[in-house]
Amino acid sequence: MDGATGKLQYWRLYMLSLVLGIGGSFQYGIQVSVIASPAVHVQSFVNHTWLSRYGAPVDDSTNQLMWSFIVAVLSLGAWAGAVHSGSLPVTYGRKKALLFNNIVAIVAALLMLFSRMAKSFEMIFLGRFLYGYNVGLGLSVHLMYLGECSPKKLRGFLTLTSSIFIGFGKITGQIIGIKEMMGTEDMWPYLLAISGIPAILQFVTLLFFPEAPRYLYIDKGDTEGCKKALQWLWQEDDLKLELEDMQKEKESAQGEKKKTVKDVLTSRCVRWQLLTLAIPCAGVQFCGINALYFYAFDIFRESGVPADQMHYFAIGIGATELITVTLCSFLIDRAGRKKLMGYGYLLMGVTMSVLTAMLSIKHLNSWIPYVNIALIFCVICIYGLGPSGVSMALPADLFLQAWRPSAYVISGTINWLGMFLVGMSFGFIVEGLGQFCFLIFVAYSIFSAAFLLYFVPETKGKTMVEIMEDFNKLNYKNKAADAENTDISLATKL
Prior knowledge:
It is built from 25 helices and no strands. It has helices at residues 2-8, 11-23, 25-34, 39-54, 60-84, 88-92, 94-118, 122-149, 152-176, 188-192, 196-206, 213-219, 223-234, 240-252, 261-266, 271-281, 289-302, 310-335, 337-360, 368-385, 387-398, 404-433, 438-455, 464-475, 477-493.
């Protein structure tokens, strides 16, 4: 009972995670999924606009290229946002960076809303790029802000709410995109402008919350402001341990300037943290989940699912991911990051290997396509329980304050450029390799699992400084051995 009451005292922190989620990772989820349903209507709009301007219809290849660009430009915008996530939150604070970010999303929504009236498909390009910027900056700052407001016992659970909001955003985009709601010829500009609503909500509600306490204490040296923020968020007067932890982190970074991206890439003291950030976390695009969504429709078709029902199956996949990520948020602080993510990648690799084999023999028996549907849902369950959630929570644990913003720039760059590359090249890979394209993702998943389980220390329930000490054993492994040998030889001489 005491534990439950103790956790209820953090209700303001839970409200902050809700506000950050709605304008942060929810926007990513909704932008990834909402674009699929109005595809035909937007392509038709591009064709009509081209015809009225140039007196001739646009040829199919140009129209397809424009549509591919509308889909993929989100990743480029998100990359630009991720790059700025290293400077804006440091200069202006986490809260002001998010308030500015909401204005970007509102501008993007207005461009989408008036694009048909202005007969300009260029406004859709620009709106989609600005949405991308909003998502790239918002996702990084959301995780930074929440990680810096959370007590260590809740850090895993709270940073993982970002993954829950991505899942919630995806399923929201799929539901409002059905033809019974907003997926119609008349409604598509409103559908594409929908992200303006969460942006307005976050802009209004975030004004009532304080700046991130760690930012105030470590970056600004505002001890009093930090105490007030913590007392307000945690409803707790005894903050001695938390302030001591911040003081240790501040002392370990004393005299150090804010680290640049180059520092993170070249410094030995964060080498293993960087590898952990790059391989299993930021590289989550390469685990094959997008390939699976792409293949799912073919497998559903082969199993006899009617074309007009396909959208509802997609909602089912989205719901499965959302439920398993929510379940992961309750497991992460019990099972730990390392086990959930390491064994998650391993099981994904094994299940996708079986799926590849079953896709190769699908014509041998009529029941095989149904097994393939079950395997798809299995992979999505494993992805939600492990890699999807933990890849969001782990980066918040890996770096001290001075390194964190630049680390998020690197994470965002790998993530968004990876998404752009997979998005642009995946069609060609499928054409060339067929179902064997999954073997690329199997190799990545098994390599990530081995890396996590063999090398990465567990971060569950540890302070930032303790995590840094664990990684230093890896970063300076040879140096420690050399120092030990030197000590032994000196002792022998003496």
